[in-house]
TrEMBL record:
One of its GO terms (molecular function) is 2-polyprenyl-6-hydroxyphenol methylase activity. The keyword S-adenosyl-L-methionine applies. Belongs to the methyltransferase superfamily. UbiG/COQ3 family. This is Ubiquinone biosynthesis O-methyltransferase. S-adenosyl-L-methionine binds at residues 43, 74, 95, 136.
Length: 250
């Protein structure tokens, strides 16, 4: 496991500033985070199925995370934290940009949701372990990917569930996510750096090094007819679960 000193290198200040500058529009479905608003239901569909499979909860239940602790890393302004809270979890969100967590806290208060938000490095937070840890569209923005994964695992309960999504490093993602999407304004310019994208094989290795087994990736694809949707096509983006294969190291 990486120590806190190494994990402090995970935040890139320029990345935090980039996303912090978008905080005021984060909850506007037609604003700079419009793509995240379209992506969120797709991620939630995958996540709900993963939760039911992992804990054996009913697909008809409205609060499958009741009694569970949930941590969303790179939470932005809380687009995922709020649905997790409505599913019954006691939610903590952490983000590199304090502007984002301030916007998240204000929105949660307006929605009458009790969510704890904090800004800064995950390694510097004394917050214990969580049943569910999520990091959606985050690992491609960190400075030290092994240290980041080590910190995610450090905060995962022994029988917990980890869920990550990230763009794949392929020719298609370079053309569409970095080139076309930023050119037409679907994603703010400077959001993505293709060389930082992580392939499923690389992510499996990162998780394996920390004692976790990764599920078969599900693609998040786009078509003019379906929009963003879960797919077998992982060429643009993918989402996975991971679980411990052995007791955590001490």
């Amino acid at each position: 496991m990486a120590d806190a000193r190494k994990a402090k290198l995970t935040i890139r200040e320029d990345e935090a500033a980039h996303f912090g500058a978008l905080a005021a529009e984060w909850w506007d479905p037609a604003g700079s985070s419009a793509m995240l608003h379209r992506l969120n239901p797709v991620r939630l569909a995958f996540l709900r199925e993963a939760i039911d499979l992992h804990w054996g909860t009913s697909i008809e239940g409205r609060r499958p995370l009741a009694g569970k602790l949930s941590l969303d890393v790179g939470c932005g302004a809380g687009l995922l934290c709020e649905p997790l809270a409505r599913m019954g979890a006691e939610v903590t969100g952490i983000d590199a940009a304090p502007e984002n967590t301030a916007a998240a806290a204000a929105h949660a208060e307006g929605a009458k949701l009790d969510i704890r938000y904090m800004a800064g490095e995950l390694a510097e937070q004394d917050i214990g372990t969580f049943d569910l840890v999520t990091a959606m569209e985050v690992i491609e923005h960190v400075a030290d990917k092994p240290a980041f994964v080590a910190q995610l695992v450090r905060h995962l309960a022994e029988d917990g569930l980890l869920v990550l999504s990230t763009p794949n490093r392929t020719a298609q993602s370079r053309l569409l996510l970095v080139g076309a999407a930023e050119a037409v304004g679907a994603i703010p310019r400077g959001t993505h750096h293709w060389s930082d994208f992580v392939t499923p094989e690389e992510l499996a290795d990162l998780l394996g090094a920390e004692g976790l087994k990764m599920s078969e990736p599900r693609g998040i694809a786009f078509s003019p007819f379906k929009g963003l949707h879960l797919s077998d096509d992982t060429s643009l983006n993918y989402i996975v679960t991971a679980r411990r294969t052995a007791p955590p190291s001490t």
